[in-house]
Amino acid sequence: SELDMNNQKSSMLSVNSADVNTSGSYKCIASISPPESQLVHDTEEITVLIKGPTLPVKPTVIASNSTAISATITWLVTSVAYDLESYQLVYGTEMDPEDNIITVMGEPDVNALNLVYYANIVDLQAFTHYYYKIIAINSYGNTTTEVEIFGTKESIPTAPPELLQVESKDSRSVTLSWQLPEKNGRNGLIIVYVVTCSSQSDDLEIINTTIAANITVEQLNPHSTYSCTVAAVNSIGKGPEANVTFTANSEAPETAPVELSVTKINTSSLLVSWNPPFIPNGVITHYTVYVTFDDGTEPIMFHTTSSATSFIINHLQPYQLVTVQVSGHTDAGEGPKSAEVMGRTSEDDILPPELIIIPEGSKIAGQTFSLLCRVTVPIGAVLTSVKWLDPKNLEIHSGGGISVGDESTFGDFSRLTTYALQFYSILTSQGGSYTCIATISSLHGTIMETDLLSYDIIVQIPTPSIQIAAPNYFYAGSLYVLNCTVQISTSVDTSDIAVAITWSKGDNKISVGDTIEFYVAETNISLVFQSQLQFNPLRMELDDGNYTCAANVSTEPQSPYILPDTGVESNKITVQANVPILEAYITPATVYALDVAPYNTFSLVCFAECPEGNVLLKKFSWFKEDMVINDDGVNTLITDFDIAASNSRSELIRTGDPIQTYEYNCTVSMLVSDVLEITASSIAEVKVKGPSVPVQAVMLREKEITNTSAVLCWNIPYLTYTPEQYVVIYHSSDGVTQMSPDSLISPKDFTATNEDYNITLTDLLPNTLYYYQIRSTNSYGTNVSVERNFTSSETGPSHPPANFKVDVLTSRSLLFSWTPPYKADESGIIISYTLDCQPFTNSLPQTYITSGSYQVEGFSPATQYTCSVYASTSADKGPAAFAVVTTDEDVPGLVTGLTLVALSATSMNVSWNMPLSTNGVIKSYHILVTTSSQDVYNRSISSDHTFVIIENLEKYTLYNVTVRAQNSAGLGEGLTDRIFTEEGVPTVAPKNVNAYRLNATHVNVSWVKLTLEEARGFVTVYRVNIFVLEGYSRQQSSYMTTVDAESSHVVIEVQPSFSYQVRVSASTSAGEGTFSTATDINALESCLFQLLLKGVPDCPEWIFSKTDEKIVDITTQIASKINQICLCSFSDAYISDAIFICTEEVIFRAKLFSTPYVNCKILLTNMKDIAESGTAGVTVDGIRLIIDEGCEIEISSFDDPFCTTLDGTQATGNSTVETAPTTSVPTGDVNYNIIIYTILGTVVIGIIAILVTICVCSRIGHKKKYILSGPQDQHHQANIELQAPPNPYSRVQIHSADNPEYVEVSAGVEETKAVPSPAEGTNKSPDGDSLYENVSCI
């Protein structure tokens, strides 16, 4: 280009169709020629690289993250080799996946470096291994990664177990089996199965769990149907259930038949009946009836052919006694027998008894009546029972108004017995034929019933009750009704009763249809019949007289067991007609009218009343002063109403007449019996009002006052003239006078008084004082009430606070300020201001009493807030003022998700996520990588990237990686993690390994943990190796214990008599490092002691009973006594190898160990002090044993002589030995008991290499065991003499310690038989007997 105005010039070089040959170094040389000066040059060089066709760079897999159904694969591409690349993620369940492909397009920028791609895989099968590879593709070809593998996580099983079936079952249990759910439905490792069985019949649910694919469910009930479900469970949860239904097998009935009874049929047959068992355990197929005879006849049994619950025994003898039992059968067998029940057949015929029935009492319904059944019993018989049968041949029992005779006489030998049937109140329905039947038995028990003897009860209907209902006073001309009520006794309870009712006046019968109507009515309580005699109307003198009502009761049709009422019952009443009373009155008594139309019209009503039911005609007459008023059809209207009724009236309406006050008279006349006229009258006054202005409204008051309205109320005492109009005149304290838009009119009735009125004023101003009056107006003038005032209610402000402003102070604080709303808009008194901002902050909302400036803290940095403030009165809040503000930025928070992945032994990938609190716009991230001695990487990268690959690192090196986010406010706090590029095996052992005894049986081992640099990785565990020393050579007895990486000590259980060495090693994921130098733990120094215990009644028996428990009791008490003296935390753990020896008394020998603080020699001195006290002792098994001070405490060997010279019996914990003089030598934990046999003065010393256990079972069941031991490298014959005579089933077992085999020797037989030795590590013989405990005889 040409030189421009800025003195600049440019040049461009374009190369078209570039290829690899175009690559090279290009230079641009610029030169100028200043005047009178040499040429000046400047050069800029650039290298151009043209990429040729190249295969893509092989991707590097960074991570694979998976759930139960999905996975995310992430890979890294360090550079783009040629042109645009794409990537295929190929995955499947086979080693060479080809099934599924996901394509991801590459970055279009061919110069991009270190690109990270990912692909999401969905719809995977849970708990499944998937193989995958990544293929990078460009236009030149493709490259493929190695096949990688990932596994999906577990999820709840989606398939039930398969092939659930019943393998076997019985009545109380079932064995179920199944197979694993289908493979795709397991979704994890099946760890357990949940088996649930339930039965609706017994409401039982059984729940079991098992790890096997089969289970036996027990505690079932026989013959119950069960539904069992099996569900597979993995670590996530329980899957669906498989179901199987079955019925448990039957069992024989568990209980016997119940309610067994035996009933005689005749002289040769008995009926046996029962109910099924309560617990049949199945379906009853049949029953067995067992019959036993009292005469010694052979018992017999009968099998029923079905499940029927009765059976007839035939072919018996008269009066034969039998005993019967019954059992039930299911298809599984026979159940238990029932309890025994006895029965006897009938005797031969006997003579029947004689019966007589005697009636007593009245047979009128409602009265008491009895029948006596007199029974004569034949000689040689006993009265068994007497029964009464009703007309339906049903047995009668006491109750419901009936009682039967006393049964206390049954069974005696009286020849004459009376048995009564009594009716407390006999009913007509109880009429009929009643039967008495008696039962007798012979002296042998034969039962016989008599022939039937009956008696007919005929019940008579009682006389009815008659009542006549009538008024107390009779007036001529009225309608009257006489009611005759006939009530029948409730004892007449039949439905076919007929009642005849008649009326008569004097001796003359009144015929139906003249002045009488007849009907019958019945109630639900008793029989009630009615008849009416009506007078319409009642006439004077003609209807006066005595009236009679009579009734006759019968049945219809006639019943043979009911006798009708034989008489006629009646009742009388006297009727006397009287002159009626007539009354008259006018309403209203006073009438007001005006002298102007339309208020010069009035109306009067005259009422005439006479006795109720009066039907005589009445005549009304009206008078003004003394002048008769007639109806002229215009100004005077007279209308009469109901002149023939008891209550009549006449209405007078006058128009235009009243110009002054007058009296009006109403006269009523009525003619009685065509000869007697009676009259009544009443007077009313008509008053006329003249012109007048309204009276003032009074009782002014307010109600329902709001901020814009008020209801005003008042009262008008009376109307002075014509109707009035009312309005409200009102004004505010600084406003103009207004009149209510609505007005009210008084009633047209100008006689109204004390009327209340109200008007609602609207469109008022809030919080304003108003004054008002009531103005009353009629046709003559106006009047105004006194003035009254009220204040309208407050409301919320109508405008927001003014001048609302928000200033930013810091990234977390704001300054707010405002002024009150304009006073005219306050609508009340401002009581508070409420400030708030969104989004939410814990500092707001806040309420302030006054306006002003307020600083508020607690906001989030770099956040836009919309803030508001509004004012409130006591009534409501007003609208808000708003302001939008953004706080300043602050340094970012911690980044999240920091992940360090070692890509190789010398490189790693660092990735992270944006901070949760950015506090502004993240501009970059700073990454610092350090070792313990130097910084390796210290750079910032753009916020567009959240990962970085760091190379050129050292192997087996711990790197600390810190990532910080940065915005305009600065660097935030760093998040740090550590990583080894490649972990190595620790090259140093844990240091300062220390081991010391805590007590006799426990050692504490401690060490200093390795640093990460020393471990060359993260320590996973520490291993402690401890082994037993014998002298200075290592013995085979050793073991390892493992503790977690955070621990630096462990407590190990040891033996007090052994010496140990301890070593410690550390392990990382790469393997276990070297062990530390061995640390010695010396055996505790020991001393031997003995105690002579006095007070045992039978030494041999005492030491062989509960030997272990007694040794523990003695060592515990001895340790306690020693500790009371030495105060050295001495316990029974420092005493071991204890044995009992039986001489005249019990000798207790044991080994005593030094404690970390006190030597055993000193402890023996303490024991001597205890023994020499003379009263020291121990309590064992309830017996107080005294320690003999004369017996030497310290011994040098368990072979030392006893405290006496007598032969002894020795007990050592779990084994006992009967010996001649015995010596016991302790070596380690093993007792080698040398047994010295003395036979006929010849001493044969046998050093026996065989440990022998002998079980001798005598006829009375004694068990004895012999233990012999010696050097382990010799073998000898064992000549064993049993000191108790063996029975033919005794057995001897011989076991060699170094050549384990058993030899069985039969009692008295000199031959041996080798049998297999037990499994290594056990103490059981082939038949399961213990070698070290007493065994049972075989």
Quick gist of this model?
The chain is mainly β and 1338 residues long.
General description of the model:
- The protein is mainly beta and 1338 residues long.
- The chain contains 5 helices and 102 strands.
- The strands form 27 sheets. Strands 87, 88, 89, 90, 91, 92, 93 and 94 form an 8-stranded antiparallel beta sheet that branches.
- Mean pLDDT is 81; it is low at 515-524, 1031-1036, 1205-1210 and 1214-1338.
What is the beta-strand fraction?
over 45%
Would you report the number of β strands?
102
Oligomer: single chain
Estimated structural class = mainly beta
Principal-axis shape equals flat
**What radius of gyration results from the CA coordinates?**
64 Å
Largest sheet: 8 strands, antiparallel
Provide the residue-averaged pLDDT: 81
Could you tell me how far the N terminus lies from the C terminus, measured between alpha carbons in angstroms? 123 Å
User: What is the helical fraction, as a range of percent?
Assistant: under 10%
Helix count from the secondary structure assignment: 5
Query: pLDDT under 50 segments (min length 5)?
Result: 515-524, 1031-1036, 1205-1210, 1214-1338
